[in-house]
Amino acid sequence: MAKGVKLILVLGLISLFSGVVLAKTYEITSPTMREVAMKNQQKAIFEVLPQIKEYKEFQNEAGMLIYEGLDSDKKVTGLAFIAEGGGFQGTIRMMVGLNLKTKKITGYKVLEHLETPGLGARITEDSFKKQFSAKSWDDPFAVGKDIVPITGATISSKAVSEILKGSVAKVLEVYGGEQQ
After folding, report:
1. Per DSSP, what are the bridge partners of residue 104?
2. Do residues 129 and 108 make contact, with C-beta atoms less than 8 angstroms apart?
3. What is the chain's pLDDT, residue by residue, as a tens digit (180 residues)?
4. Which of 119, 122, 138, 177 has the smallest set of CB atoms within 10 Å of its CB?
5. How far apart are CA 6 and CA 19, in angstroms?
6. What is the pTM of this model?
7. Where are the domains of the chain?
């Protein structure tokens, strides 16, 4: 057998073995990863709605899932929901909180992102996030006007602003008739 054919066969077997190992590893770890993601999501609801004692799920006909934050009297005081949109390098996925009484954003928690470390990844830092806390959902969310962008990460800054503005409007439209 020629040297080149042996090399191709060996590389093919190594590739096949590696693929099987990767697939099996994913199969084994996938349930644990989903469980951790779900726990992080549940924790994020209480982070973006710190005033609530518990929450319940509300889902409209279109399948949009909204978490209703309940106070100690079981009254809905806020909403939490997952918002996502395009960032600089991929999708930004975050949990967003709204206070129904003050009509303001209570905060957001980034659940997933692929933004550049040290630049766009700073969307997770409190110094940037605090600009959106207690911000009226009627504000323009304009980067450079009422939102100070992250230096060197204007696209990521705009992405967060646009995701928040668009998703808040959509959630309020969906949930509007359901307020108690």
Report:
1. 99, 136
2. yes
3. 788 889 999 999 999 999 999 999 999 999 888 898 889 999 999 999 998 999 999 887 777 899 999 999 999 999 999 999 999 999 999 999 999 999 999 999 999 999 999 999 999 999 999 999 889 988 999 998 899 999 999 999 999 999 999 999 899 888 875 444
4. 177
5. 20
6. 0.82
7. 45-178
